[in-house]
């Protein structure tokens, strides 16, 4: 460009910005201080100079500015490689643009020079104008070749140890390679680094959490914040953690996580944190995790780090003790038995110690009206896992969401988790929701299978089933036979709880005696926990056969046997601690067995429930049963008929819908009508029949309620002549639905249990009688490799001792 002159004038003090002056035909047309090393600044300055001056070649001015930038970058002297390329370039340009673009070897050499010596490449690039080469065409031809050279470099050259990221002026930056020169791109207005890396282990999944600290370019320190590995890949955590002053520039949120990782490769703290309670194997030894650390680790073992989140933060044990302190704590725990009749206290205390052994596939539900201290009783059980877990700080409530209860039950591994106040209120939808949530939780407990989940990438994630023992309380009992078969149901009535004993037990629990007894028990179990787990199914199986009874659901004997095993483990430990004698242990073991077999499940059994509803339908005269001929049967008042006096004459009128016929001995039910009336009454009670009609008929047969069936036709319905026609009916005995007074019996279970309870000496009396007798023995009791005069003390050897578990 003839007449166009560029002058570069440094600042007078050599510290300020230099001035670039552009003159055309001796007239200064621009004088500014652009950053010549910034391509955008150079191009912007060139465009401003050419604006309104069509006689100035924009591309030519850009080339002149680039040459000036190359000279200022120290490229006046070319390297030998660059000089060789320069010589070949001059020769190619003799043939014009075509000569350059035909020489592919020259173009490849220029591409390598662009990557390896950017300043020399910039200097050669401006010479292309002398050969009438358009810079835009040249850059287009070179772009792909330069990218190929960059990609072909070894990783350590293509991306250095920091991946091309660096810190500059208090910001995280990256280098962008262009066809002109490398450009510095700031990603944000702060620096950040990963200071620690934590693996949060819940026993099923290991989740990585990063501790990140930073500093604004202005100098303000950004506090350490914890970010999950998943959330770290997005920049959305920055403003919630550090406020609006921390800015990620547009388009850089994808590069920023990689930059922080690349700049945080120096030594950082790494640790594993357990986020659940219960047993884990650590450095070859079994330990029991709680909020205060771990119980059972041998001396010298690496400490375990535990971080329990709400509502499990109060699951914390005092340190295990030995001698008199241990004996006093165990006696306090035994005092729980005197709180009420043993049919109420034995199952709960057994559940407390059974839960700590793991692999529990049932729950316990304590039911009763308001004001009978059922929550206080459950709280005493819970305080075996932490003295602060009293009735006002229970870890679970049925008012919580289903997901939160599911997660708490999953993390409360090998422990009792009280879920309080199952008291459905409100409309039908609310009642159904609460019963549905109870079914979901207890069914997961019984099946040891949580709901399967799908991850964001479409893969399947494991469910999170309850891993401890759920101890529920409420004014109602969850519905459904199958569900109740997964529960040990304990019903408390007014006056069942001894208030004075309750106060004493609460005082002991608040003082930490219950939790100390459990801590000592866990320390005793720890060395042999692996062997116990291996033998536990065998121990339960030995008692299951003894617990089976006619009419009992198939799951119930296993529940009774499992509770008995837990209780007998505790009794073995209590003997070794000196709290009870060997004979007393045997007596407690045998006398507690009947109290564990008092299981309340009959009301939920579909066949019995149907007959109960049917009896209520007839008693309330919502429906009626006729005689064989359709008239009033014998004792019509029992079958839904109402007496009516007309002119001194007695007339019996049927009430409601006809659901069957009777001859006094046999009862023939119309299957659809009887089912419909029973289901309607159940629905009014917000309960509902839990099985379909066909299934109900099979349950009636399995329970022995059907008097006959029709095997020739392969049906449970029989044909009978009734009211002059043949009808398909269910044949039962009349006494099954409407027994007369001569067949009525009382259930002596409660009275017998109360008598047994009154005849037993209290725990306090037993403790006092044995205090002196076992004081010396208890003083020598330890809880790692327990030994005393009764045997080795190894809990895994229960069944091999003369005074063994069974």
Task: Tell me what the structure shows.
The chain is α/β, with parallel strands linked by helices and 806 residues long. The chain has 28 helices and 29 strands. The strands form eight sheets. Strands 22, 25, 26, 27, 28 and 29 form a six-stranded mixed β-sheet that branches. Strands 9-8-7-10-14 form a five-stranded mixed β-sheet. The chain is elongated, with a radius of gyration of 43 Å. The C terminus is likely disordered.
What distinguishing features does this structure have?
alpha/beta, six-stranded mixed β-sheet, 29 strands, 40% helix, disordered C terminus
Task: Report the β-strand fraction as a percent range.
Answer: 15-25%
- The computed structural class is alpha/beta
**Spatial shape:** elongated
Q: First CA to last CA: what distance?
A: 108 Å
User: What's the count of strands?
Assistant: 29
List low-confidence stretches.
Answer: 742-761, 763-792, 798-806
Number of helices: 28
Write the layout of secondary structure elements.
Blueprint: E1 4-9, E2 19-24, E3 27-32, H1 39-50, H2 58-72, H3 80-93, H4 97-102, H5 104-116, H6 118-125, H7 135-152, H8 155-158, E4 165-168, E5 171-176, E6 183-186, E7 190-201, E8 206-216, E9 221-228, H9 229-232, H10 238-242, H11 255-262, E10 269-274, E11 278-282, E12 285-290, E13 293-295, E14 305-306, H12 323-334, H13 342-355, E15 363-367, H14 374-382, E16 396-397, H15 402-411, E17 416-422, H16 428-447, E18 453-454, E19 460-461, E20 469-474, H17 481-484, E21 487-491, H18 499-510, H19 513-525, H20 529-547, H21 556-576, H22 582-596, H23 606-619, E22 623-627, E23 641-646, E24 649-654, E25 657-662, E26 666-669, H24 671-684, H25 693-702, E27 706-708, E28 718-722, E29 725-733, H26 734-737, H27 749-759, H28 763-779
Parallel strand pairs: 7-10, 10-14, 15-20, 15-21, 16-17, 17-20, 22-25
Antiparallel strand pairs: 1-2, 2-3, 4-5, 5-6, 7-8, 8-9, 11-12, 12-13, 18-19, 23-24, 25-26, 26-29, 27-29, 28-29
Helix pairs in contact: 1-2, 2-6, 3-5, 5-6, 5-7, 12-19, 12-28, 13-21, 13-22, 20-21, 21-22, 23-24, 23-25
